[in-house]
Amino acid sequence: MFGFFVMGFVDIVGITTSYVKNDFSHLTDTMVNLISLSCFLWFLVLSIPTGMLMNRIGRKKTVLLSFAFHVLAMCLPLVAYDFTAILIAFALIGIGNTLLQVSLNPLVTDVVANDKLTGTLTLGQFVKAVSSFLGPILAAWVTGSFFGWKMIFPIYAGLSLLALIWLWLTPIQEKQQERKNISFKVTLAFFIGILVLVGVDVGINMTFPKFLMERCDLPLTDAGMGNSVYFFARTVGAFLGGILLMKYSESKFYIYSVWIALAGLILMTISTNLWFILGCVAVFGIGYANLFSIIFSLSLKRVPEKANEVSALLIVGVSGGAVLPPILGVITDSFHSQLSAIIVLAIVWCYLIGIMRKIKTT
């Protein structure tokens, strides 16, 4: 579970883009959104190789390696702080988080029974959501410190080091897996689903503070707290999901969640009232909260003997966080409005409606 907490560190990419743009005023939205590209591109490049690495050295050692990359990445902005250094730091975070997301979910299957898998992965997403929720609050809280908002990096470095030592000292008996390739067609629909989920998540994470600044005339520090509302809603949603998924089927829960989230996105575009917009992003967060774990769990249950390969293939979809935000940056620079980005996110979200039948039959 502490591994899922470290996994949530990647979500500081959203608030970081706002602070970096504030620190370097010459950066456009298109340029600053390259931070997400430098981070999430590695999910596309390294996910499949990580699955191969995991087959060779084991799941636990792969997770330990991911923690080491997080420690290294979080130390870099303290040594040098410019746009290039931030790009490199988030590239290292992306590499570490790729290793972590590919290997941690299969590692969970080594310590829990199959009938508890969905609930456990949902609990993990709850812990990740807590981490994501605390990020903007922590960044705002340390703004007045010696390093300013960048004080968040040594704090995260220390927590990553603690996770590394804790897991290293924890004995885990890993299950033997068949060394077979997994057909891309088997999980293609779910792969694109993950691509959309992460792309929209990172997109709203990066767009929402700027959206609040534009629509409600808020300063950056206050607008950045809007992301905490989103992550808090995801935290509550994941907690409730962990309970409700014990009683209701994953497919029904998926359908309700997709429609709830879409309603939040659409309603967000029709008002300039701060509290209404915050309520809408909370609705979206609650709808979003459990979709990743549902898709992941259904895929692992479908071919449990190939969990390493399935996990690697699905985590390639996390590269959606690299694909969509640069497109949003170009769109917002073209239309000079963050509203256009929200509309694009709602359109992309409709793919998840399209795979509802696939979810029902899995």
Descriptive key words:
0% strand, 19 helices, 362 residues, single chain, mainly alpha
Could you describe the 3D structure shown?
The protein is an all-alpha fold and 362 residues long. It is built from 19 helices and no strands. Helix 4 packs antiparallel against helix 5. The radius of gyration is 19 Å and the shape is globular. 54% of the residues are buried. The model has no long low-confidence stretch (mean pLDDT 87).
Strand residues, percent: under 5%
* Gyration radius, rounded: 19 Å
Class from secondary-structure proportions: mainly alpha
Largest sheet report: none
Uncertain segments of ≥5 residues (pLDDT<50)? none
End-to-end distance, in Å?
27 Å
Helical content class? over 70%
* Beta strand count: 0
Order of helices and strands: HHHHHHHHHHHHHHHHHHH
* Overall form: globular
Per-chain topology:
Layout: H1 2-7, H2 12-23, H3 29-32, H4 34-57, H5 59-79, H6 83-109, H7 117-141, H8 152-168, H9 188-216, H10 220-224, H11 226-244, H12 250-268, H13 274-288, H14 291-302, H15 307-316, H16 320-335, H17 339-349, H18 351-354, H19 356-360
Condensed summary:
It is built from 19 helices and no strands. With 362 residues, it is mainly α.
